[in-house]
Design brief:
single chain; alpha/beta; nine-stranded mixed β-sheet; globular
Length: about 290
């Protein structure tokens, strides 16, 4: 139920496509772009969340069955906002309230968010749009550190790509900062001192006004982080998660998609149903025709 905060924009009516048409399209061959980052110990991540760790509590040879068979298994610990992930609507509050108007503290009673937890994030098969901002602005490698991507930048990008955004779409914004993810100096991607490019409050409102279901970026916090400011304030999160009910995805790998100039695609993502959690790891896919 909705409280005093803004309701999620209604999505446009969708054209029904018969199942056999979809199956035939897949049978003819599709190309899949993996937008998820590899999870590894020591990867760059927000300092505000528990680090990723992976270990083998059982190795091959620790226990050998009578027939000579052996098995190995894993234990993984991590924050739900580490690596490529999606924010649930319970992740951010403003003035003590969540998107549905509920009291943020009371909503977490029992250590989980019943109404707006990660288990409520729907699986997504949507029209996806890539906005390759630096390519449109003439700096294809990437936006400068700490650069705020404005509504004008987004409009110019959309115009130069010759595309459109409709209600219900998933919009992914490339800043070019993703090229730093594999830098041996993990602090570069985190960008605490340099700042990180991304949309600000105005850019988030631009997205919300178009009724998108979710927005994502190739950076650690989605939005613009000014030099030296870190995660001190996150106005775009407030606009999208709290005011508009729009999911946010972070640390996407958008480089290959941009290099191939694929600006429209079928977006597929299925968050894990972590009951009551504030976010979930996700492995998004961009699917186009052609093998």
């Amino acid at each position: 139920m909705k409280g005093a905060f803004n309701a999620r924009p209604e999505t446009e009516d969708r054209v029904h496509v018969p199942d056999d048409v979809l199956i035939e399209a897949v049978a003819q061959g599709v190309r899949v772009f993996d937008l998820g980052r590899v999870l590894f110990v020591g990867m760059p991540q927000s300092p505000n969340h528990p680090h990723y760790w992976h270990a083998l509590p059982r190795r091959h040879g620790d226990m050998v069955r009578a027939d000579g068979g052996s098995a190995s298994n894993d234990i993984i610990t991590m924050g739900t906002h580490v690596g490529t992930h999606i924010d649930a609507l319970s992740h951010v509050s403003q003035d003590g309230r969540l998107f549905d108007g509920s009291d943020a503290y009371e909503a977490s009673s029992g250590g989980r968010f019943i109404e707006l937890g990660a288990h409520t994030i729907p699986a997504m098969v949507r029209r996806g749009v890539l906005l390759d901002v630096p390519a449109a602005l003439g700096t294809p490698e990437g936006c400068p550190p700490g650069y705020e991507i404005t509504p004008d930048d987004l409009e110019v990008t959309l115009e130069r790509q010759g595309g459109s955004i409709a209600a219900g779409d998933v919009v992914l914004i490339r800043s070019g900062w993703g090229r730093h993810f594999d830098n041996p100096d993990r602090s570069v991607f985190i960008g605490g001192e340099s700042g990180v490019p991304g949309v600000g409050e105005a850019g988030a409102r631009w997205l919300a006004d178009r009724g998108v279901v979710a927005a994502g970026a190739d950076t650690i916090a989605f939005e613009c982080l000014p030099p030296g400011a870190g995660h001190s304030v996150l106005p775009a999160h407030r606009v999208l998660l709290v005011n508009a009910g729009i999911y946010i995805m972070e640390t996407l790998d958008l480089e290959e998609l941009a290099a191939q100039r694929v600006h429209e695609f079928v977006f597929v993502a299925s968050p894990l149903k972590f009951y009551g959690a504030t976010g979930s790891p996700v492995r998004p896919l961009a699917v186009t025709s052609g093998a």
